[in-house]
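I hope you will forgive my troubling you with a question about protein structure. Here, with my thanks, is the record as I have it:
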Amino acid sequence: MEAKFFRFLRVVGVGFKARTESAGRQLFLKLGYSHEVELAVPPAVRVFCFKPNLICCTGIDKERVHQFAGAVRNCKPPECYKGKGILYLEEVVKLKPGKQGKQSK
């Protein structure tokens, strides 16, 4: 199988990790929940983890690759206050300012 389409995902957050098992057929994500999130990879897609925080979805069908990458990102979408979550590699999250403390006069 020759991979033609790629989608890279970045896992951002303290203690957030990703790993693959059984030749890229299963993806395990540690995302700060009480349990590990387990995703079964569809047959037309392969998944590789180059680092614990970098996921590569690849395959010959663009739609399926992007669909699976979207499903992975949906497990923990990036939040706008700290920027933690699963982001596409080229994605930039615009951070919002937090609460403003009371101003002392």
Q: What stands out?
A: Residues 62-74 form the longest helix (13 residues). The mean pLDDT is 88.
